[in-house]
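Our preliminary data section would be incomplete without showing what the modeling component actually yields. Below, a chain of 349 amino acids is followed by its predicted structure, encoded as tokens that our downstream tools consume directly.
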Amino acid sequence: MPARNHSASSVLLLTLLASGPSALAAAPPAAPASGLTGATPTPGPRAPGAVVHGEMAPLTVKAAQGAVLDRPALAFQPTSAKPGDPVLVMVRGASALPTGTLGGRPLRFFAWKEGHAALTSLPVELNAGAEVLDVVAPGKGLPVALSGTLEVLAPGYRERQLRVAGKYVSPPKAVKARMAADRKAFAEAFAQPFQAPLFGQNFAWPRQDTVTAPFGDRRSFNGKLQSQHFGVDLDGDPGAPVFAANDGTVVMARDNYASGNTVLVHHGAGLYTAYFHLSRIDVKNGARVKLGDGLGLVGSTGRVTGPHLHWGVKADDRWVDGQTLLKLDFLGEQESPGVAVSSPDLANP
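Predicted structure:
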């Protein structure tokens, strides 16, 4: 954020408080959008460089030089999240690329629709509480500081005991070189340069079936190996088709020791989707795919207890909950209903 200058050419900072639901179009000042809070600016003269607190609604502020600035607007979703969730930040009305942080982590903005957006993520080990969102958006000659608070809820991840083949709990020495090669391949696949989104619509389920295991399960394999489930498991018969969740580029089509036949799709904006345990891979590395294109078939390759699709999502270098990604509205429209159903014993479908 630029330092304040109390001279006639000072930079005017506006601090906007956003704590309500995502809304790209702000309401008139007399009737602010639901959930958006703030104090109406106090009328009267202010010293150059003064901080102004205002409602998230269209407002014109006269700077010391007499210039007129239409205030940028901030929105983010979800407004209440859990550890391991992706978070979409949108800024409208900025004259150039904004900068900012969520919980101190830098945001990477890109031009999106009629404004700018950034996709970030919350660490899975984050405690419940509040995370501060700070953004500086260039205005019409003047920067504008926007801020909001993201409520972080307790995740309630469940504990599970699973049994798999012993070689996946204590891998023999013969496969350690293969596992090292797998790790290198994943690292290279996830090292794509940051770029604008390759998609233009919201994300969809990769297949329609029952969610058998949600994101975040804490697992014990054969009573020994402790791990956490960084994906969503979807039931399926062997050979059932698996589809791309959105447009992107295939950056891995490979048989791996633990994840089995694996496809990774890069969607731009620091976002990837992963498809594990396939019985067959139907795409090649480097292929461009569209939403709904076939990637392969459900299987039981790698470390599994039975045939299913493990669907993973990685945003801003962290594995995140794919079910939350499906709820993010990149288009500023109403949330679309999901097509996957949950098992009755799942607390967080």
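Residues 1-69, 333-349 have pLDDT under 50 and may be disordered. The longest strand covers residues 129-138. Preliminary results of this kind motivate Aim 1 of the renewal.
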